[in-house]
Give the backbone structure.
Amino acid sequence: MKRKLVVFSLFITLIIDAQNFSQDVSSFIEGEEHEITQNINKSEFENIQPDEDFKYTQQTDSPVISADRLFDFSTKVEITSLNPRDKIYYMTIGASDTNKKKTFTVYKRPFMISRTTQVKAYAERKGEKSSVITASFNRRPNYWNINTISKAAPQYTASGKLALIDGIRGDINWQKGEWQGYQGQNFEAIIDFKSPQQLTTLSSTYLQDSKACILMPKKVEYYASMNGKDFILLKTIDNDIDPKDEKIQIKDFTTEILPTEALYLKVKAYYFGKLPKSHQGNGGETYIFIDEISVK
């Protein structure tokens, strides 16, 4: 009986040892595989040598140009690369550079600009050049103030109220965010010139994309005032673009007036109203998209 117990005990011991050995081997293999994966991630493949049939192309990213899009007197321009090993080249183009031959130069440090300027730049790494990126920075053409009585839709505020008088015209591609959009209401704003201005030409710019429920205003009115309270109607311009026209288009509501001195200018654009029955959004409210108000 004792002999049988000894044999059974030895058998149980062998089973336990086999299980422990299996666990130890499994843990060793899993630990080794995890360590190798970590090493590959940390090296970011820098030490991997591809075989002859493997071709690896590293694309150089374009740099980032930063400055105030709209500035009063001057602004600092900084160009940064996503990879510190890149070499950056840039050039600046101003209004006086139209007929000049410009070339790219090496960027070394941030620089100041004091006029409306276009900056171009690209990065180079080991002889490979990135795409050229372009950014425009604009000095304010005036120091007027503007009070928008209407409230723009949150997703269509452009860069704020000054976008309406910054001299930068919106692109036909309104999805870039350069336009202010007002839905289900008239647009109304008052410009404070800060000092009396002699007015002879008045203009405001609108966009139509009927498929997106953006229609030209039915009419635009211009008013003048010397005290900001009592306004005199100067001119009314009616819209002549068919609301059913599906072409994306821009229209300047421009008018010539007799020389008029004013300290304030009010612009009021009347929205089209609800979408017509012929439109797929029948009954929905339309938008007014406006970008730039200017006077001469």
Notes: The CA atoms of residues 63 and 84 lie 11 Å apart. Residues 1-57 have pLDDT under 50 and may be disordered.
